[in-house]
Amino acid sequence: xxxxxxxxxxxxxxxxxxxxxxxxxxxxxxxxxxxxxxxxxxxxxxxxxxxxxxxxxxxxxxxxxxxxxxxxxxxxxxxxxxxxxxxxxxxxxxxxxxxxxxxxxxxxx
Length: 109
Fold this sequence. Notes:
By secondary structure, this protein is mainly alpha-helical. The chain has one domain. The chain is 61% helix and 9% strand. The chain has 3 helices and 2 strands, in the order βααβα. The protein has a two-stranded antiparallel sheet. α1 runs antiparallel to α2.
């Protein structure tokens, strides 16, 4: 079999990729904006649910949107920290794992 099926993850977990803060700043800003928009959309859904007297507080939709608000808000805050760090240190080199590369959307190009 190929490398993707034999010893899954054995070698790939150690792979690292070097990017500068300058290279990472735009992807961090884009992700911040994406998660900010998703959090705002979830909060607007929550507001709509809270205004609708026919929807109980323990409704499945309310629970799902609560989780979305927390998840997107947490990711937005993480990306805000990344934006700050990469802007402060544009020439610093950062070692990213494969998961980080895909998170920032760097694997596509």
